[in-house]
């Protein structure tokens, strides 16, 4: 390597312009399946929710958390997943292109790698039998990074995604019930639902099809949260031990110059290498769990303070 390092061509590296994401902010990386309207049709996803596809998304997200220990949690619905990195994250020196490309390609790799486990198919014998769904085209995902400075912003971000999931799923459930069970054309179903409120869709599902929307699976209505759980499982005896990562980042006061008005500037106290190594080991050991619960209210976050700590 040393011999190659100083070639006359190396100056081209200076054209690189790596963007570093704003320090001391939460980073959320959101990926989304490219043209999954087409992909889901090609792969015969069941409408409106194919549980195999959702479980494959969740498994790929969990494997991504397993691979990248800096990620605290992820939230997913449909063909998207959002990954949360803590404010003190220094992975890849917070270089945006490194973070975005590594997360999205790790996830995509797992999605393809795990496909057969969830969809079956794959080998010639299975294809012969018409079993499962073998992968017919390579799926791909886009990904973007956004920095959020406050806990409130992060909470609102996840609330936005979950509220969106609810609105979309109620619409899709009403739409596909009209089409599949009601024998209504897609165009007519679309027209019938135009301008309706949530209550109208609930009523339509109940009065015409006997479906109580609230009894639909939680995974469909609430999406999926995948996170590191530092608590010791109840069945192992000890009640939820206090997790080590609950303490918020410490803040130190900067003293003003002599004679100057004492000014308080928030300066994050960065963690030492050994502290970070300790946390990485803990993160590696923590269980990764998947739940379909409300993340708009306070309860989820209050019970898992290490996620935003
Ligand atoms: P883009 O490339 O802009 O994201 P897209 O076709 O992927 O285009 P989205 O808004 O991301 O558009 O919509 C995702 C599509 O994938 C929806 O049409 C949805 O019906 C389908 N889809 C995703 N997951 C499932 C699933 N589990 N079951 C059935 N359909 C799904
Ligand atoms: P990073 O994540 O920082 O890129 P890395 O281990 O991938 O770490 P690289 O500098 O990218 O580091 O080096 C790629 C490595 O992969 C080299 O060690 C090289 O020996 C190995 N490698 C890549 N392609 C081949 C190949 N075709 N045959 C054998 N080894 C290969
Ligand atoms: Mg290389
Ligand atoms: Mg999109
Ligand atoms: Mg998409
Ligand atoms: Mg989408
Ligand atoms: Mg490499």
Q: Nutshell version of this structure?
A:
The protein has 309 residues and is an alpha+beta fold.
Which helices and strands, and how do they pair?
Elements: E1 26-33, H1 36-42, H2 51-67, E2 73-77, E3 80-85, H3 96-119, H4 124-129, E4 141-148, H5 151-180, H6 186-193, H7 198-209, H8 218-222, E5 224-229, E6 251-252, E7 267-268, H9 273-285, E8 287-291, H10 299-303
Helix pairs in contact: 2-3, 5-6, 5-7
In total, the number of strands is 8
The biggest beta sheet is recorded as: 6 strands, antiparallel
Helix fraction bin: 40-55%
CATH architecture name: 2-Layer Sandwich
Features of this protein?
single chain; 309 residues; alpha+beta; Alpha-Beta Plaits; 6-stranded antiparallel β-sheet; two-stranded antiparallel sheet; 10 helices; 8 strands; binds adenosine-5'-triphosphate; binds magnesium ion
Could you walk me through the main structural features you see in this protein, from its secondary elements to its overall organization?
The chain is of the alpha+beta class and about 300 residues long. The chain has one domain: Alpha-Beta Plaits, CATH 3.30.70. Helix content is about 40%, strand content about 15%. The chain is built from ten helices and eight strands. The strands form two sheets. A six-stranded antiparallel β-sheet has the order 4-1-3-2-5-8, sandwiched between helices. Strands 6-7 form a two-stranded antiparallel ribbon. Strand 2 and strand 3 form a beta hairpin. Helix 2 packs across helix 3, helix 5 packs across helix 6 and helix 5 runs parallel beside helix 7. The chain is globular and about 70 Å long. The two termini are about 40 Å apart. About 10% of the residues have low confidence. Bound molecules: adenosine-5'-triphosphate (ATP) (2 copies) and magnesium ion (5 copies). The site of one magnesium ion has 4 residues, from loops.
């Amino acid at each position: 390597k040393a011999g190659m390092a100083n070639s006359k061509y190396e100056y081209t590296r200076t054209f690189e312009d790596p963007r570093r994401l704003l320090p001391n902010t939460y980073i959320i990386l959101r990926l989304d399946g490219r043209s999954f309207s087409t992909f889901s049709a090609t792969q015969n996803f069941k409408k409106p929710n194919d549980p195999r596809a959702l479980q494959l998304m969740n498994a790929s997200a969990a494997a991504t958390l397993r691979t990248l220990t800096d990620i605290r949690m992820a939230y997913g619905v449909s063909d998207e997943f959002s990954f949360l990195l803590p404010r003190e994250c220094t992975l890849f020196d917070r270089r945006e292109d490194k973070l975005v490309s590594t997360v999205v390609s790790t996830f995509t790799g797992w999605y393809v790698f795990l496909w057969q486990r969830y969809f079956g198919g794959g080998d010639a014998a299975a294809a012969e039998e018409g079993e499962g769904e073998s992968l017919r085209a390579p799926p791909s995902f886009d990904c973007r990074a956004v920095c959020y400075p406050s806990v409130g912003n992060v909470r609102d971000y996840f609330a936005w995604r979950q509220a969106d999931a609810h609105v979309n799923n109620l619409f899709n459930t009403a739409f596909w019930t009209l089409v599949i069970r009601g024998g209504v054309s897609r165009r007519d179903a679309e027209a019938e639902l135009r301008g309706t409120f949530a209550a109208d869709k609930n009523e339509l599902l109940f009065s015409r099809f006997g479906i109580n929307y609230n009894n639909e699976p939680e995974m469909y209505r609430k999406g999926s949260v995948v996170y590191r759980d530092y608590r010791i499982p109840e069945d192992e005896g000890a009640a939820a031990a206090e997790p080590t990562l609950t303490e918020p980042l410490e803040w130190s006061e900067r003293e003003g110059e002599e004679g100057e008005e004492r000014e308080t500037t928030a300066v994050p106290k960065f963690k030492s290498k050994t502290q970070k190594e300790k946390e990485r080991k803990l993160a590696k050991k923590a269980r990764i769990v998947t739940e379909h619960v409300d993340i708009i209210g306070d309860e989820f976050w209050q019970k898992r303070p290490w996620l935003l700590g």
